[in-house]
Amino acid sequence: MTDARGKRPESVLVVIHTESGEVLLLRRCSPQDFWQSVTGSLEWGERAQAAAEREVAEECGWTGLPIEDCRMSRRFVIQGAWRSRYHAAHSHNLEHWYSLRLPGRRPVNINPAEHLEFRWVAWQDAAELASSRTNREAILHLCAGDGPPD
What we know:
By secondary structure, the protein is of the alpha+beta class. It has helices at residues 48-60, 80-83, 123-129, 133-143, and strands spanning 10-18, 22-28, 35-36, 38-41, 68-77, 92-102, 115-122. The longest helix is centred in the middle third of the chain and has 13 residues, at 48-60. It is globular. The chain starts with 9 loop residues before the first strand and ends in a 7-residue tail after the last helix.
């Protein structure tokens, strides 16, 4: 929720990945070439876990899944494409990392107001395709051990 304070400069990043090492990425409507995991700002007064659950429901259509708090976060400068959504006093965002590991792919019901398409891709490719540095870091941190044994 945006109010006179602008968007809250705190967000969640939920890396959704399968046991076989695939990661779900979503392509934003704007900017159109921006690929990301499920992400979104916390509403004022909202806890991070609740925001992670809300964002997965809004962006994928899924509820009641075991979203794990990775107990990791990153602070970064709010970039130009999103700067106008925040109060001028807020120059940085604090992003909390979450993981949702699934046995396999699930059907995704994207919100067409936010995303144009989705892809399930190998974690290595997802790390390259992800548009933000922190998203790439989270994928590498959470998924490097995924995949079938050699």
